[in-house]
Amino acid sequence: MKIKLLISNYLNALLCIITYFALGGVISPLLANLYLHYTLDAWINRIDPSVQFVRYADDIIIHCKTQDQAEQTLQIVKERVGECGLRLHPEKTKIVYCKDFKRKGTYEEVKFDFLGYTFQPRPAKSKKTGKLFLGYDCAMSIKSRSRIFEVIRKMGIPRMTCESIVGIAHHLNPKLRGWIQYFGKFRGYSLSKVFYVLRIKLVRWARYHYKRYRYSLTKAYKWLDRVREQYPSLFYHWHVGYSN
Fold first, then answer.
1. I need a surface site. Which of 4, 43, 87, 161 has the fewest CB within 10 A?
2. Using one digit for the tens of pLDDT, what is the confidence trace for 81-114?
């Protein structure tokens, strides 16, 4: 079975070794990447060219065909980084079984987080038949969504002193564009909860800002719906078609 290196092709991977390197202290990203390139990347390619892996900074995924290969690879990686004065994170380093409709075995770990996404077994629809099947795919992680919620909370949208909602859109759109362009690539509907919370914040702003909506939640929501109808591109998530 061929193993794919690209993150988007995890369906072809049987097992992944997820490693997080504890480098200790603040270190230059450039120096860290150079060190890990020669310490790990070039070394793996030299000792076993058949092993496929992807690394971003100090996080790496190594694709293996069997559990035995995964366990052996994990052991030699531990020895290698130890020789180079590094260590693997004891809790986050693990072997994950990429379970789907073809791989029906049982394993303790079947999901992992990488670059803000959670990879795990998920229902998918066949492009040929339209039927549902169990695939292995990614979507925005719960931790990433929680961080976005925290950013929105710290912005204090309900108490913003903007004269109109246009000012709020001016502040929000760069962030909305970044979130959508990154997390909207795979199962973008996972952002819907974010925009639902944002809708609540905008309604609260209207109730603080306009006296006529202060005591009527229903009228405030209708006002926001009218704004969207009149200016469908005001907020970036409206522009690209999200419902909230």
1. 161
2. 898 888 888 888 999 999 999 988 888 899 999 9
How far apart are the C-alpha atoms of 2 and 20, rounded to whole Å? 25
Give CA–CA dist 187/137, Å, rounded: 9
Distance CA 46, CA 40 (A): 10
CB 58 within 8 A of CB 52: no
Q: What is the pTM of this model?
A: 0.81
3-state secondary structure of 125: strand
Structure tokens belonging to residue 204: 């609260």
Which three-class secondary structure state does DSSP give residue 73?
helix
Pair 15, 96: CB distance under 8 Å: yes
Listed in sequence order, the DSSP H helices in 58-112 are 67-83
